[in-house]
Amino acid sequence: ARTxxxxxxxxxxxxxxxxxxxxxxVGALAKFFKITPQEILVVHDELDVVPGQAKLKFGGSHAGxxxxxxxxxxxxxxxxWRLRLGxxxxxxxxxxxxxxxxxxxxxxxxxxxxxIARSVKAADLLMEGHMEKAMVxxxxxxxxxxxxxxxxxx
Length: 154
Known about the structure:
The chain is of the alpha+beta class. The protein has a single domain, classed as Peptidyl-tRNA hydrolase (Rossmann fold), CATH 3.40.50.1470. Helix content is 37%, strand content 16%. The longest helix has 15 residues, at 106-120.
């Protein structure tokens, strides 16, 4: 999808490839419309962030994420923005592939959806290129603390 925000063209891309080939779609769009890697924001799941948290960062390695690995390869660099949505780690390396491919448990799904909702509140800042302000907003948005149980009879 393409839209205009304050006179600036914004592209929204959901690759129609397998996740491991996400770079094919991202690279093709970037090349055709002359979008520099520094202008790209990739939103992805992140094992190293707990469910309910989101982290915005620029650059870095793919950290074993096959979709990011392909994006790196197609763009020729890791210098692009990422919004890392925490899905947590299963705790055992051998379970990672199954963990990222299955649907999250209800509690984790709710936390992930809450982190997405909080991140969306920074969308205007992101689209306007105010990445540092967006980073502060996203990183300081914490999941609500659970309410303590009410004592019986109160």
